[in-house]
Amino acid sequence: MSDPEIKGLLERVRAGDVGSLVVLAKRVLVGEGIKQAPPDAIAMLEMAVKQGAPEAALQLSVCAAWGVGLPRNPQKAIEYLVMAAGFGSTVAKRELALLGCASDGAHAQAKQPVDLSALTTAHGVRIVSERPRILVVERFATEAECAWLIERGRPALTRALVYRGSADAQVAQTRTNTEMGFTIFHADVLLSLLRDRMAAVLQTSTRFFEVTKLLHYEPGEQFALHGDFLQTNTPELAQEVDLRGQRSTTFLVYLNDGFEGGETDFPRLGFRYKGNRGDALVFSNLQADGSPDYSTVHAGLATTRGEKWLLSQWVRTKPVG
């Protein structure tokens, strides 16, 4: 954002434009074109909430759910969602329905926390392989959750990238699908709880999670044979692994049915998997000593009919800052 744009935005805020106040708060939250100052951003969003801005309450729900600028507090996040719904946000009302919460804020008025255990617990975990460790979690996500994630991420899809010799991703003909990342302005409360559900399966913390990705494959698109671990054969990638850790685990959630082909293929293991909507495939990328496990190289095969949607979560060996 250029200086004239910032100046104009500040002038509109001073004139009392609450929409501009929310925009400015978001810029300050991430330091886009202006000095990053999360506490100031939160204060601006709270000010906008007092003026009845649903977008401000929605953003505060994300901040509370993800621990960005606020202590992580899913209960508080839901309270902000209730505020947004009260201000007329259809998105907030729909998300509350998915979470099993009343949009009229009955729980908040009674000062009783929402029981989130059902939203953060997974059942039906099945071990497919001990070495390498491969799990299948049937019905990990509901059909409604899957549809929500597709709807939320679809508008932001771009060409998927790969890592080759540097820490910077790049376009490659070996990967032709599209993807999007659920960063702070695309994330929501539901996804934060879904990540908690993943962490429960893995018996780890979401602090080790990279940005969650939505993957989309049109017929004929693929991700050719690859490993999800990072090669450390260049100084850049070695430094990346040293700072942020190796990719220890991949967690894939199948978000739709109705396509042919499109299996996840592990040729060295003689194993292919294609989940039903809501099923998850989880596999380790490393050996016991922390080195890459080349038996887990796999391919996202092309669909022959219909599109394929996946939620992809990479997990590191060190907290992701």
Automatic annotation (TrEMBL):
GO terms for molecular function: dioxygenase activity; iron ion binding; L-ascorbic acid binding; oxidoreductase activity, acting on paired donors, with incorporation or reduction of molecular oxygen. PANTHER family: PROLYL 4-HYDROXYLASE ALPHA SUBUNIT, TRANSMEMBRANE PROLYL 4-HYDROXYLASE. Residues 207-317 form the Fe2OG dioxygenase domain. Gene3D superfamilies: q2cbj1_9rhob like domain (2.60.120.620), Tetratricopeptide repeat domain (1.25.40.10). Its cofactor is L-ascorbate. Keywords: Dioxygenase, Endoplasmic reticulum, Glycoprotein, Iron, Metal-binding, Oxidoreductase, Vitamin C. It comes from the Bacteria. This is Fe2OG dioxygenase domain-containing protein.
